[in-house]
Amino acid sequence: METNNVNMDDQKQDATKSPSGFSIIWREFIKDKVALISLIFLVILTTLVYGVSLFLNQEEIVRVDLFAIHEPPSEEFILGTDYGGRDVFGQLIIGTRNSLSIGILVTLATGIIGVVYGVVAGYFGGQIDNVLMRILDFFLILPMIMTVIVFVTLVPDYGVITFSFIMTMFLWMGIARLIRSRALQEKELDYIQASKTLGSSHTKIIFTQLLPNITSLIVVTMTLNLAANIGLESGLSFLGFGFPESTPSLGTLLSYARNPQTLEFRWWIWLPAAILIFVLMLAVRNVGEALKRAADARQRRG
Amino acid sequence: MAFLEVKDLKVHFPIKGGILNRTIDHVRAVDGVTFEVEQGKTYGLVGESGSGKTTTGRAVIGLNHVTSGKVFYEGTDITKKQSKTKALRKDIQMIFQDPYSSLNPRKRVLDVIAEPLRNFEKLSKQEEKKRVQELLELVGLSPEAIVKYPHEFSGGQRQRIGVARAIALRPKLIIADEPVSALDVSVQAQVLNFMQDIQQELGLTYLFISHDLGIVKHMCDDIAIMYRGRYVEQGTRDDIFNNPQHIYTKRLVSAIPDINPRNREKQFHFREEVQREFEHSYDDYFDNEGLAYGLQPISGSHYVALPEKG
Q1: Which of B55, B104, B127, B177 is the mutation pick for testing A, counting most A CBs within 10 A?
Q2: Going by DSSP bridges, is the β-strand pair B205-210/B173-177 parallel, antiparallel, or unpaired?
Q3: CA B260 to CA B104: how far, in whole Å?
């Protein structure tokens, strides 16, 4: 902790000399208006969704009300109701929260597993790398959709946690491979070799030398993965392998559009969710791209 | 018992290929190298690129896997894993060739130089800062530099940060792997003279790896010439520069540029002559594979790679 304090003090003194990581990112966002708007949109949406959903009662919203089936938007139901008489607006808010939670949870879980796995494989190399990568190959060839279907059938209590788990199982390999290839490259550089001759332990080298030099890659990949994961969750739910109707998500709302009647005449059920998925993924992607450019001096605009 | 003794050191890298990624052959980067270094002296390792001089240095400090052979440091074999103790790590340090990649770009100079201190000495924040500032002054940088990042320095300054890091623990042996090859000539002299100064001050021993004969002549007491992983000639500075025996050494020595323009004509003819001799007697000095022979003693300190019959 003490080191951190010292570094913080130094950073203040030195702020004019070498721009810190945050000021580089900030400059990039100032230059790229689309990314800035995306970021603001994301922040507002996230606070709104998580804030409002605190006041909403999920059980009440998903309770079937046969007297209010397929109501078009009105004052009582801002976005109308679905075939079970459930308030679409409430479902949209809770659904966005669930989708975002899944996205963030899966991204974090895959990120942590992938980084640890990739760094260990890449840094130690040799036989360790060989064994770890063969295990990874095994996970890569598992058929995802099929396993998810089996999993959904087997697990009775299907919620955010279990769904995150099954998605994480199939999504950590990409980031692990990426990090491994970077770690392989990075460990050959002289500063890592120098650290060895200076008597630093492997753990110390990994945490103080290797990881700081690949953080930008980790941050960028995880942001871009977040967009992909939200999309994937919606896709699975749309196909009916995601959440049950008692746990609304953007995907379950969208899946009502599988009914041709709903698709043609009851736009209020699926269109808001579709637009939200589209805009959300686009915004996360824009932010991710801006971060990616900030991490690479040659691509920077700011 | 010599300070540093290397016995028949071999470092081979496998070449993989064919079906099933088998090991087809080996690159014999270092192929049977033997030498001794006395304490307080500078031992120069010279050769063209790819001759295995850097690999030798890295094998001595343990960054490369040693295929066979032994490295004795003050009598203990340091190629074995269990003998790589903390004290040993402290005693042997390395100056890296490339001042750009050998400093972590994400760390401030304070953290870079303090890294060995943090590993071996328990110092308070204040003491540590003071030590780093002393070291910076020793290498001729301003003490304010501790808050800067490596990229804010020039190549020469970065190399000096590398030197400061290497001497932070007061080691006994420093492996200097082409410490000035990446620097401007003007800065080379600064760094080299500085290295000589601290050698006297701290009683350091250098294993000096270089391809620049001028620098080696300036720095080293004993010199070895390497070619394709083997020694070609070994001897004192005098032996090598005034009495080169092997045709390869002669060629190298003749290639040292002479500043005096009046000698240009003479140098030119001398080089042509050496070149003719090289072409003419190549087979006398190298075996069928183009490798050097084993070393034969010429005098007490002077060894040359010649065929058995002499």
Answers
A1: B104
A2: parallel
A3: 42
**Length of chain A, in residues:** 302
Q: Residue A40: its pLDDT value, please?
A: 94
Q: Is B152 on the interface with A (CB under 8 A)?
A: yes
Is residue B214 within 8 A of residue B188, CB to CB? The reply is no
Report yes or no: B156 at the A interface, CB cutoff 8 Å: no
Which residue of chain A is at minimal alpha-carbon distance from B152? A18
Taking a C-beta distance cutoff of 8 angstroms, is the pair B16, B22 a contact?
yes
From the list B92, B102, B116, which residue is nearest A191 (CB)?
A: B102
**Residue pair A69/A81 in contact by the 8 Å Cβ criterion:** yes
Taking CA atoms, B197 is separated from B139, B172, B180, in Å, by 10, 15, 16
**Residue A37 clears pLDDT 80, i.e. is over it:** yes
CB contacts of A209 in chain B (<8 Å) are 104
Domain positions in chain B are 4-228, 229-310
This prediction has a pTM of 0.80
Closest Cβ opposite residue B119 in set A17, A194, A199 = A199
User: Exposure of A294 by Cβ count < 10 A (0-12 exposed, 13-18 middle, 19+ buried)?
Assistant: buried
Residues from chain B contacting residue A18 (CB–CB below 8 Å): 148-149, 151-152
Domain B4-228 fold is Rossmann fold (3.40.50)
A198: nearest CB among B115, B148, B149? B115
Phi, psi of B34 (to 5 degrees): -130, 130
Whether A18 and chain B come into contact, CB under 8 Å, resolves to: yes
Q: How far are the Cα atoms of A20, A36, B17, B35 from residue A33, in angstroms, in the given order?
A: 21, 5, 51, 65
A76-96: average pLDDT: 82
What are B125-178's pLDDT values in tens digits? 899 999 999 888 888 888 888 888 888 888 888 888 998 898 888 888 999 998
Q: Give percent of chain B with pLDDT exceeding 90.
A: 14
Find, among B213, B221, B166, B214, the residue nearest to B194 by Cα: B166
**ipTM above threshold 0.85:** no
Measuring CA to CA, how many Å separate A300 from each of A37, A282, A290, B150? Answer: 18, 20, 9, 21
User: Do residues A93 and A45 lie in contact, with contact meaning Cβ atoms separated by under 8 Å?
Assistant: no
In this complex, the residue of B63, B90, B92 whose CB is nearest that of residue A193 is B63
Do residues B116 and B168 lie in contact, with contact meaning Cβ atoms separated by under 8 Å?
Answer: yes
- The full DSSP string for A120-154 is HHHHH-HHHHHHHHHHHHHHHHS-HHHHHHHHHHH
Residue B30, SS3? strand
The alpha-carbon gap from B296 to the nearest alpha carbon of chain A, in Å, equals: 35
Whole-number pLDDT of residue A178: 94
